[in-house]
Amino acid sequence: MSKILVSGKGGVGKSFFCVALAKAFERENFKVLLIDADESNQSLYRLLGFEAPVLSYMDYLGGKKVFKERLRKAFQSGTKEPQIEISNENIQGISALPKEILLQRGNIFLLSVGKIKEPLEGCACPMGVLGRELLERFKPLQGEVVIIDTEAGLEHFGRGLEKGVDKIIALSEPYLDALEVAQKILEFAQSMGKPAYLILNKVPEEMKENLSSFLLEWGLNPLLILPWKKEIYLNSLYGKSYEEESILLKLQKIIPEIL
């Protein structure tokens, strides 16, 4: 089964899209591990209807300071990276993960790698190491799929987070800055030998004609175009889960291609 990473410029709707995609997979009788690999954004758990966030993977392992010390010792000893101590082997399926770091709703399981909590606490690199090792070692069982919500931009490519995934989705809004980032994501994915797909989000109906001409000029061929929906904005404003039937149906149709 696939590990699918969703990437894009800030504000294009990655968190909403990841939750909607997880719900679409659930409708197709998959178990979904939704990994929150964004160190800044706090809202993913709300979009799934939870009242409080899950205990992060980093905190489960003792916190960022403890993990950074283990990193330092590992580098000093010549070890490439420390083990994350859930298992000495590959992690075989969702049931092999500690229940303490999972929130479950139906057949969707939410895991958070870690968050920046305090000013001056340093960079998010330890979370990048932890997320990369998790993705490389986690092996979905038959009937399971992994969806990874990433931080905005391209830094996670520099950290190598994509090494442990099977497919990459470049999510974009219909404006130049976001499309430039999406194009770069597609280029990075190609250079890594990873299948990648462009999906456009929040596209007003009246823009479709102009957008088609622009995409043709740039040589971009989106797998899917999702419409702008006022109801989604309103629910996102209050951090509420929102199920738009037409969008879920569109996502269900592309599942065979992105698996």
From TrEMBL:
Entry-linked SUPFAM superfamilies: P-loop containing nucleoside triphosphate hydrolases (SSF52540)
GO cellular component: cytoplasmic side of plasma membrane; cytosol
Domain of life of the source: Bacteria
InterPro entries: CobQ/CobB/MinD/ParA_Nub-bd_dom, CooC, P-loop_NTPase, ParA/MinD_ATPase
Domain CobQ/CobB/MinD/ParA nucleotide binding residue range list: 4-236
Keyword vocabulary terms for this entry: ATP-binding, Nucleotide-binding
One MF annotation (Gene Ontology) recorded for this entry: ATP hydrolysis activity
GO term, biological process aspect, one: negative regulation of cell division
Name of the featured protein: ATP-binding protein
